[in-house]
């Protein structure tokens, strides 16, 4: 009725000046809104699947006005009506499962919601005769199905050095809508240019979606705090779901295990670039393993030097042995020729 009257006002104001028509329209709007005003609707933005949903519709009526009805719609379909002059005052229609005992003129409670309950909900408030002023206010509701499992991270190495490329994927499985994924390093968001968001993968049977976010950046020395890099992936859906997975990646620090001096007098360094503290034998063990040999843990330098010296002696003995054989063969050959 309100809209029809305003259309009539627009048609009537065609013969007036622009200012006069605006004044007439404002005057009519003021008269029409005196009885019913301040209609407010509260629809939750998101509700977890299986939880109840509470819808609120508040309004104000002047002293000379009475409420005629309140109607709730999902889309264009009415599912709830409250009419105080009718008995029973509450009517519930098919489509939405409403908790009758908890619902009234300003509050509607939907029972355990399903994902198909997502959509636009509208409250229509109408004043009684003679005005029958009517105002409709709407809000959107989304039913969320959260993931059963935490997000997972794949592709990371056990250790990293400055200059290495860190590539990884974070995946949040089976939710509706798809979870929002964010990457942080040492609790600082990773710049967007190093993050790739993939299109969610939708399951054709369940309708649930899987979200994937990749990260690709070069590890720098400042990424390591006390020798460790903290990589974190967080998954969230509205204010209902927030889970994260955190990885502490140690810095790959090469260790010098033993040193010695070569036979030529040059310094020798026994260096194994991929040996780490956790890869060494237990602290209670009495030895370390270096290139297949077991060295005394209490004196690794002296033991390694001893092995080098033994290796040199063995080589000298073999050379001497071969020289003796050659000399012996030559002596017997000369004697044979002299006899013949």
Automatic annotation (TrEMBL):
TM stretches of this protein: 318-338
Keywords: Membrane, Transmembrane, Transmembrane helix
Domain Ig-like per the UniProt entry, residue ranges: 47-138
InterPro entries linked: Ig-like_dom (IPR007110), Ig-like_dom_sf (IPR036179), Ig-like_fold (IPR013783), Ig_sub (IPR003599), Ig_V-set (IPR013106)
SMART domains per UniProt: IG
Taxonomic superkingdom: Eukaryota
Pfam families: V-set
Gene Ontology biological-process entries: motor neuron axon guidance
PANTHER family per record: BEAT PROTEIN, BEATEN PATH IA, ISOFORM B-RELATED
Name recorded for this polypeptide: Ig-like domain-containing protein
Organism: Anopheles farauti
